[in-house]
Amino acid sequence: MSVYPQAVNSLRYQSIYSQHLEQMKAKKHLLEVEACVLGTIITDEKASASALEVLSENVFTTAAHKAIYKAAKGLSNRFEPIDTLTLANELGKNGDSDAIEDKDYLETLAGKAAPKMAASYVALLKEAHLRRELKAIGAWLQEKAEDETQGYTDINRELERKVYRLKSSAGDERMHPVKTALGKVIKQMENTSNAPEGMSGIPSGF
């Protein structure tokens, strides 16, 4: 009896398990970076101003971190000081106190502040958010491209809207490679729409 199928399945399982572990490590690392950025916002006025200027709630991945950033942004917009006490009060006003299960979490965040690394961490959060948005657009585009009831014009129009929103948040210079890649996909869609009857589907290289 050949053991080849069992060996292949074992290797496949190990590969999937390894990928899962790497994803978990990456997610844990990202959460630590988010915590460092929020801690810096709480403790360092100069770094806080820079981070609040370029970030948004959407770059954070948990409800607690989103709520804390929202509270800090609100205080900043009103030119009020940002610290653990003012943040706790602002969270209460926003109805977001329940988003933080650990009542000492703000103090924990303050202890993770890393002002010297703030700029690098902010850039990392923006990059991670951009990649999540690109994956979402790619998944949406693939789904639409495989739906025979969807017209090319409607797909292209909605795709342009999605890319424009992402471009506005990311900055034009960082979106250039993305627009190039999407341009290739759109061109493939155009070729498909002009193909003889019976020829359908586009490569999924996004």
Structural features:
mainly alpha, elongated, 206 residues
Give a written overview of the molecule.
73% of the residues lie in helices and 0% in strands. By secondary structure, the chain is mainly alpha-helical. Helix 3 (63-77) packs across helix 4 (84-93) and helix 6 runs antiparallel to helix 7 (152-170). The model is unreliable at 197-206 (pLDDT under 50).
SSE topology:
Elements: H1 4-43, H2 45-54, H3 63-77, H4 84-93, H5 105-110, H6 118-145, H7 152-170, H8 172-193
Give a count of the beta strands, DSSP E runs of length 2 or more.
Answer: 0
Radius of gyration over all CA atoms, rounded: 22 Å
Overall residue-averaged pLDDT value: 78
What is the element string, with H for helices and E for strands?
A: HHHHHHHH
Principal-axis shape equals: elongated
Q: Main beta sheet, described?
A: none
- State the end-to-end CA separation: 42 Å
Figure out the total of helices: 8
Q: Tell me what portion of residues adopts beta-strand conformation.
A: under 5%
Low-confidence stretches: 197-206
In percent, how helical is the residue content? over 70%
Structural class: mainly alpha
